[in-house]
Amino acid sequence: MSDESVILINLLKVKPGKQDALIALLQHNTDTVIRTLQGWKTTRLIAAGDGAGVVIYSEWENAAAVEAMRSDPRMQACFPKVMELASLDSIMGSAVLSETRRG
Length: 103
Hints:
35% of the residues lie in helices and 32% in strands. The chain is α+β, with helices and mostly antiparallel strands. It has one domain: Alpha-Beta Plaits.
């Protein structure tokens, strides 16, 4: 997996009433930290319609870039703020299928 793009999916289960605050925090962190990191390609934030969760979908050049992001001091400072608003599960892997409707 070291020579192919990796996808990092973070599933955040939001504490009641905290989804907007979490999205604002994640957006700020993406704008000020994630964009500056070597190996970052893209990030999407997906908000649950019922306010109970947020999914962070991000693509990275390789697994080493993800590990570097996780150990960056700016990210280390952000993690406790996120954990005040939500619980977190993470999956890292590679795409095995990608389909798009044509026409």
